[in-house]
Design a protein that fits this description.
The protein is of the alpha+beta class. Helices cover about 30% and strands about 20% of the residues.
């Protein structure tokens, strides 16, 4: 690996294993993935090797053999790359309406993603980010990606979540600004926070790294935001007894969160029978968007006042994993307000413990 040279570039990269953004090292082979240490690179190699490709030029003099992952057979890598390019599917199209969908249509439901044999979308993270997520977010403020990781990986994540739930670590979801004891009247979910290093959370960690990968490719293109960090992953469960979450905004007070990213884990979900829709009310629009919490579905939307939303009562156990990404400038201002005591109580929270659930 080689040390990252540009401070600006470093602010826009993440450790593939833990999400850390400081003092990063670049994979000496593909030069497109980053790690905070050689140890994390070694730990992540089993999954990174599936996407790591040699660049089409000789090693630079300062790159010594053995610094990066094992080089493997470059001929096989070239053949695999050519095969993947030949088999690439048409790019997803952004929704074809200027306004969000009404009650009978989901935003993104007409956004096709062609799955590979094991179920996940066939698009590379870079193409998915730059040619689907970026234009869809900038036009609608909401983007849905189906078949994100494939059934096998999705089931592995679901197993991690169910095992985690059985440990009793989940607690009642809290409000960012806690003013009364009526939280359960507002939200009925159970949550826990995951950093990604916890035993038994390896698949959740993999999901987080893939989310980070997409955001890295989107960065600098999502509105005017410069994303330089994220929260831990919030794993949420609505127990299925009619619980939901009333209409709210994730970031109403400028706490730094700019993009909400949610991954759903609910197999064979039928909204008519199970409820649990995420209903988004885009600012300035007469219509609303209904998002079903379908298995292996990834959802992005702006975290601020542009997207008030609610979780309608769920009558079957409903799981989701949420990560919020920070805008550098707004996050810095929020920290300053927190440190000086000049901000509102809604800002005075440890931001990686923000407790909104969708």
């Amino acid at each position: 690996m080689e040390n990252q040279q540009s401070d600006l570039e470093g602010d826009r990269q993440y450790c593939e294993l833990c999400g850390k953004m400081e003092n990063l090292l670049k994979c000496g082979r593909c030069r497109s993935s980053f790690y905070c240490s050689k140890e994390h690179q070694k730990q992540d190699w089993k999954k990174h090797k599936l996407i790591c490709k040699e660049v089409d030029k000789p090693l630079l003099p300062k790159e010594k053999p053995g610094e990066g992952p094992p080089p493997g057979d470059s001929k096989k890598h070239r053949e695999k790359r050519n095969s993947e390019q030949a088999d690439s599917a048409p790019l997803p199209q952004t929704p074809n309406t200027d306004a969000p969908a009404d009650r009978d249509e989901e935003v993104g439901s007409n956004t096709p993603t062609t799955p590979t044999p094991n179920g996940q979308t066939s698009l590379s993270p870079q193409k998915l980010a730059t040619e689907c997520i970026v234009p869809c977010m900038n036009k609608h403020g909401i983007c849905v990606v189906d078949n994100f990781l494939g059934a096998e990986t999705g089931l592995g994540i679901l197993e991690n979540v169910k095992a985690l739930y059985k440990t009793g670590r989940f607690t009642d979801g809290q409000l960012v600004s806690q003013k009364s004891d009526s939280t359960k009247d507002i939200r009925g979910d159970k949550i826990t926070w995951i950093e990604g290093k916890e035993p038994g959370c390896e698949k959740i960690s993999f999901l987080m790294s893939r989310m980070d990968d997409l955001i890295r490719h989107c960065n600098g293109k999502l509105g005017n935001f410069t994303i330089n960090g994220r929260t831990k992953a919030m794993v949420a469960c609505y127990p299925g007894n009619g619980t939901g979450y009333v209409r709210h905004v994730d970031n109403p007070n400028g706490d730094g969160r700019c993009v909400t990213c949610i991954y759903y884990l609910n197999r064979d979900w039928n909204a008519k029978e199970h409820g649990g829709l995420l209903r988004i009310f885009p600012e300035g629009k007469a219509q609303f968007a209904d998002i079903e919490p379908k298995f292996d579905r990834l959802l992005f939307f702006w975290s601020d006042r542009r997207n008030p939303h609610e979780v309608q009562p769920a009558f079957s156990t409903r799981y989701a994993i949420t990560v919020w990404y920070f805008d550098a400038d707004e996050r810095a201002r929020a920290k300053e307000k927190y440190l000086t005591g000049a901000g509102e109580k809604g800002v005075k929270v440890e931001l990686n413990k923000s407790s909104d659930s969708s």
